[in-house]
Protein: Response regulator transcription factor
Amino acid sequence: MIGEKVRIVIAEDQTMVLGALARLLAIEDDFEVVATATDGQKALEAVREHRPDILLTDIEMPGMTGLDLARIAREADAAFRVIIITTYDRGGYLRRALAAGVRGYLLKDSPIEELGEAIRTVARGGRAIAPELAAAAWDNSDDPLSDRDRLVLRLAEEGHSNKAIGKMLSLSPGTVRNYLSEAASKLGASGRIEASRIARENGWL
Structure:
């Protein structure tokens, strides 16, 4: 990367935050923001079109999460590397991010200088993890949820009925109910609401 600009795609669903990040990074002589996106699907289209070095993304976005994008990149053996910048400071999220192939994980209240150095480090092939989260990731309990548990629980948390979730996922309402019951059981919860709360608190959702 010596002598070349680090090409960056930024994915962030909050327009004001997205604009601020793009302007701040564009000031750096060795960075080039080649595209921005406000949801996961647009971010995926942007990285396929522009082939950046770095995808800078939040975790929670409409359509596709930052962790989904990282997983797709890893499975496709894509050349770009993913850095998560988020408000989620729980160890469970970091562990899931690392498992998905994320190379950097920073909090949104980090100084812009720290973000810049993280981008340079990851572009060179290294890792950049917020130091205050590193220990928490390993102290956190193992995630008991499967990807399907997580998806169904997330949709239920959004207020969708079992029938509506079944239509989205081509499952019967009874099967959806079973998934929700199983997720609650794994978390020691009395129902879907408590299960969502426990999963959120641990960074598993």
